[in-house]
Amino acid sequence: MITEKDIYGFHDLVGKISKEIAKDMVGQTDVIEGVLIAMISGGNILLEGVPGLGKTRLVRTIGRVFDLPFSRIQFTPDLMPADVVGTNIVVKDEMGNSVFKFQPGPIFSNIVLADEINRATPKTQSALLEAMQEHTVTVGGVSRKLDEPFFVLATQNPIEQEGTYPLPEAQMDRFMFKLLVKFPSPDELTNIVRMTQKKNDETADKVATGEDILKLREVARGVPVADPVMDYAMRLITRTHPDLDEGAPSSKKYLRFGASPRGAQALISGAKVRALMNGRYNVSFEDIEVLSYSVLRHRIALNFEAMTEGLTSDMVIERIISETGRGV
């Protein structure tokens, strides 16, 4: 049972974490909030934005704030799966005999930055699938458990850019959120330049540990969800499916397929964390609606008609929300 002390402790710690991250990051408050929600929920994040917007800096800062091991994998067309998960190498034992020894790859870390993931081939992209879902890595028929908390933050360039390979639907679905990193405002851009001219190194300090994340996760799981709110969230997911009778008019007109059950799980898990971050002990309709964009934008597929009308995923999601109604 969640207590008032748990709520205050959760809100206070997350506030300290956000304050430390803000020392090294200017703006992008929605992105930072989304990343923290996903980390506490145990999900993975896909960040989309053009190069140079501070995506790598954000992950490095988070690693420092939580004092967790951090590894960065630069995805390129010639990157192989073994470069990500590791491989068995031949070494000499004490007797001088040749034996196989597993050499772990960079995936064996608490925070993994998969930088420009859509520049690698689909074969290499799929090397992350098992780690993201089961938190294990299988090489040579042997499964190895990854340390907790484990969190993958992948960045990708807009798909229109040269030299990109679209992520398959199965892998997209394993990301809890897809967050859009937008270009900073003129004022934010000025502050970024001033900050980087004054100092080269990040100044964020450690304020939490990996154990703290796991404790916050347990607290969040105890947040209640009222039946009307749960029903609204499930109807929202169902109405993204154009092939169902319950599908929203906009889904039937503009979508090829809708969100998976994993999307429903992500929506509820994230809403619980967001409620606590805002000092509430129950999930609201607003939590569901705000997080719907991050949860659904990579789980729905626009059809040709939507593209010809210049619609984005967020525009269709907004229409689905308005057509669904809270039912209260």
Q: If you had to describe this structure to a student in words, what would you say it looks like?
A:
With 328 residues, the protein is of the alpha/beta class. It contains 15 helices and eleven strands. The strands form four sheets. It has a five-stranded parallel β-sheet with strand order 2-5-8-1-9. A hairpin with a 5-residue loop joins strand 3 and strand 4. Helix 2 packs across helix 12 and helix 10 packs parallel to helix 13.
Give me a quick take on this structure.
By secondary structure, the chain is of the alpha/beta class. It has 15 helices and eleven strands.
Set out the fold topology.
Layout: H1 4-22, H2 29-41, E1 45-48, H3 55-66, E2 70-74, H4 81-85, E3 86-92, E4 98-104, E5 111-115, H5 122-125, H6 129-134, E6 136-139, E7 142-145, E8 151-156, H7 169-172, E9 177-180, H8 186-198, H9 210-221, H10 227-238, H11 249-254, E10 255-257, H12 261-277, H13 285-296, E11 301-302, H14 304-308, H15 313-324
Parallel strand pairs: 1-8, 1-9, 2-5, 5-8
Antiparallel strand pairs: 3-4, 6-7, 10-11
Helix pairs in contact: 2-12, 10-12, 10-13, 12-13, 13-15
